[in-house]
Design goal:
six-stranded mixed β-sheet, 6 strands, Archaeosine Trna-guanine Transglycosylase, Chain: A, domain 4, alpha+beta, 27% strand, single chain
Length: 184
């Protein structure tokens, strides 16, 4: 089974850089989820990649922190605030991760889309449609092979949002408007 998660841009970058190896949740799936598709929340607002679920830790928040803090990708104060008042928490151990060649506009996949508060299940056909959109770039477009993020700490979420917005510009628009890639 596949789930789609809403994750803030700064944490998406930490996941792909390898700094964040655990995704924390207050509630967990009832079904056996093996893959998480990542919806990067605003200002990006795009589906940007996925990761495999390696394992899920379930325990009290203090115990989970002791086991995961070295690869949490979050501060202790953020973690404590997130789990405040909770007796149980979950840490999803992030396995193999894949950043999509092209970010996918969720409205290209769903008739109507509202970012989930936590997650929703994604059926196989929607997942396959997402993969097609993520790899369906024109090879001659300057956006077909987006730059690989080597040092994600140097790039702010706004820069990332700008990058993704320009990835969605139609190839034809690039041909007819040389200023389409000029930052505003």
């Amino acid at each position: 089974m596949i789930a789609l998660f809403s994750i803030k841009p700064e944490y998406v970058e930490k996941i792909f850089s390898g700094e964040k190896l655990y995704e924390y949740r207050k509630a967990i799936f009832k079904n056996n989820v093996k893959k998480i598709v990542i919806y990067c929340t605003m200002p990006v607002g795009m589906i940007v990649g996925e990761f495999d679920v390696e394992d899920i830790l379930e325990d009290c928040p203090q115990s989970i922190w002791k086991k995961t803090k070295a690869h949490s990708g979050v501060s202790r104060s953020f973690y404590n605030e997130y789990f405040s008042g909770r007796d149980k928490g979950y840490a999803i151990n992030i396995g193999t991760k894949r950043r999509y060649e092209s970010a996918v506009n969720p409205f290209d996949i769903f008739d109507s889309f509202t970012a989930p508060q936590s997650f929703f299940y994604l059926d196989e056909s929607k997942y396959e449609h997402c993969l097609v959109k993520a790899t369906n770039c024109n090879a001659h477009s300057p956006l077909a092979n987006p730059p690989i993020m080597i040092d994600s700490k140097r790039e702010s979420p706004v820069d990332r949002a700008t990058f993704f917005r320009y990835q969605t510009i139609e190839v034809e628009e690039l041909r007819t408007s040389p200023t389409a890639l000029v930052r505003h």
